[in-house]
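User: quick one, fold this
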Amino acid sequence: MKQKKKFCIIAKINNGSFVKYRSNNLDNFFIFLNKKYNVYYANVFSNTGADERKLIYTYGKHKGLQPAFN
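Assistant:
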C-alpha cells in the first residue's frame, strides 16, 4: 500500500488561481513552488495523525513559513 503524504498545500499563485500539492518535505517543496510560480500565500494542512485536515502552517510572500495559530 502506498504511504500517505504528510502535508497538503494549497497556494494562491495569481489573481484567482490556486494550486494544490501533497508533499513530505516542506523546505524542498517551497523551493520548487517559488521556482515554478509567483506565490502570494499558501496554507499547509496536516494529512496524517491526530491533526489530520487541520491548518498547521501558513506561508507568506514576505514573511515565509510560520506556524498557524488555531
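User: anything notable?
Assistant: Residues 7-67 form one domain.
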